[in-house]
Amino acid sequence: RPRAELGEDNAGSIGGLREAAESCRRCPLWRDATQTVFGEGPQSAEVIFVGEQPGDQEDLAGKPFVGPAGKIFDVILNDAGVDRQKTYVTNAVKHFKFEPRGKRRIHSKPNAGEVQACRWWLDREIGLIKPDVVVALGATAAQSLLGKAVPVTKMRGQVIERDDGLRVFITIHPSFILRIREAADKDAERGRFLQDMKAVKSLM
Ligand code: URA
């Protein structure tokens, strides 16, 4: 179908929503990004994982969590006995925000306005999928889902029920594990994230 027919009203399915999001202009991040990286997974998913925003590799691939953070996420999800293919994986912000540094593009954190603008899409993804639980991977996702700042390292492993009844499970962002240098600390954090993913499985 021609792009012009696909307004944001065409939001009755995840596929329609994804097509509409391709031409999103709700915030300026579309200008420098390669493409919109929409959520991925079946509309029948029982759980939605929400990250922060696509990274360099996600921006190029057009798919969420396919870079380094996605790799560790995949492995630990699998260890927890969760089949990623049956889950829906998305981000609070759907365009890559970066600072050019030489040939590299360095991730830069989306601001409150960008998160707020992109909530329009996240709300609709949740509304269509109606999951048992939504997992906030890190502070940006928690902020978007709960509308307030959440201390994720303190609150991790907990479920917060929203006024609309949606259960939001709080945990860290998988890239937090990647940033830990000391091997023993990294292993410990990996273990905590695995426990969190097992807890998520029990909520599905
Ligand atoms: N980090 C995120 O928050 N989301 C992605 O899709 C990839 C990395």
Description:
The protein is of the alpha/beta class and about 200 residues long. The protein has a single domain (about 5-204), classed as Uracil-DNA glycosylase-like domain (Uracil-DNA Glycosylase, subunit E, 3-Layer(aba) Sandwich). It is built from 8 helices and 7 strands; from the N terminus they run H-E-H-H-E-E-E-H-E-H-H-E-E-H-H. The strands form 2 sheets. The protein has a 5-stranded mixed β-sheet, with helices on both faces. It has a two-stranded antiparallel sheet with strand order 3-4. The longest helix has 21 residues, at about 185-204. The termini are far apart. Residues about 1-5 have low confidence and may be disordered. The structure holds uracil. Uracil binds near residues 55 and 70.
Helical fraction equals 40-55%
**Coarse shape:** globular
| Model regions low in confidence, pLDDT < 50 over at least 5 residues | 1-7
Structural class: alpha/beta
Q: How many helical stretches?
A: 8
Going by CATH, the homologous superfamily would be Uracil-DNA glycosylase-like domain
Small molecules (ligands, ions, cofactors) in the structure: uracil
Percent strand equals: 5-15%
CATH class category name: Alpha Beta
CATH architecture title: 3-Layer(aba) Sandwich
What is the CATH T-level topology? Answer: Uracil-DNA Glycosylase, subunit E
Strand order of the largest sheet: 2-1-5-7-6
Number of strands: 7
Query: How many domains would you count in the coordinates?
Result: 1
The SSE string, one letter per element, is: HEHHEEEHEHHEEHH
Distance between the termini: 36 Å
> pLDDT average, as an integer?
95
Taking the sheet with the most strands, its summary is:
5 strands, mixed
Rg from Cα: 16 Å
Family: Belongs to the uracil-DNA glycosylase (UDG) superfamily. Type 4 (UDGa) family.
Protein name: Type-4 uracil-DNA glycosylase
Keywords: 4Fe-4S, DNA damage, DNA repair, Hydrolase, Iron, Iron-sulfur, Metal-binding
GO molecular function, one term: metal ion binding
